[in-house]
Structure formats: C-alpha cells, structure tokens
C-alpha cells in the first residue's frame, strides 16, 4: 500500500507500533510527538482507541474498511488506503481548510492498528456494499 502521509507521520506511527509491541504502552515522548504532528486530533483519537471504538470490517474478497464509533455515538466509515473519513470534520478541517493531516477517526484507525486494538468483523460482500452505500445515502 502506497502511503500519502508525510514521512514524519509515517515514522512516528512506526515508532509507536514498535514501542507498543515491546512494552505494551506508548512512551511520553511519542505521545508528545503525536500531539505535535497531528495536533488537536491526537488526544481524542487516543480516547477512541482506549474505548476500543475501531472495527476493521473485512469481506471474503479481502476488501477492507474501518468503522469508528465517534464520541457522539455516530458510526463513521474510514478508508486507511486513501486517508478518507465520512465525518464532517474531515471534510472541513482536512479537505477544505487543510488545517489537519487527518481527523480523529482516521488517526484512531492508525493507532488501533499500531497497538493491536482493532476489533474485527467479517461480513459478506453484500453486507460490505450495504455499509458503503449507507454512507452515500447519509450524505445525499
């Protein structure tokens, strides 16, 4: 998978994964780096990881999407392969204003992957299609 995150963000996520694998926690210096690189999304994203709000949804063909239960109880669909989230904050702060690299939901996906905190859900191709189309209907 080709990444579109800046190299410093990629490296930070790799370091977090390595540290978590070795010690089962993220050191303070990496938490500070997370806050520095990702700004105001960092702490809420960590909260979502702590609450185990990230679910990796996989179909038999291997297609994957992530669902994140937001802090307000709404379910958002995220695509890590293209760094996209269906939340309004992504559209506004990431796409329109370019104030942030990612929203808290996508950052929570990356952190959950690094810390092995993703829940797993296997669905049929039809169920995954319904999940994806439901997002389009919500927007329309």
UniProtKB/TrEMBL annotation:
UniProt keyword Plastid present: no
A Pfam family reported for this protein in Swiss-Prot or TrEMBL: SWIM
GO BP, one annotated term: double-strand break repair via homologous recombination
Listed name of the protein: Zinc finger SWIM domain-containing protein 7
PROSITE patterns in UniProt: ZF_SWIM
Keyword Metal-binding part of the UniProt annotation: yes
GO cellular component, one term: Shu complex
Residue intervals of the SWIM-type domain: 76-114
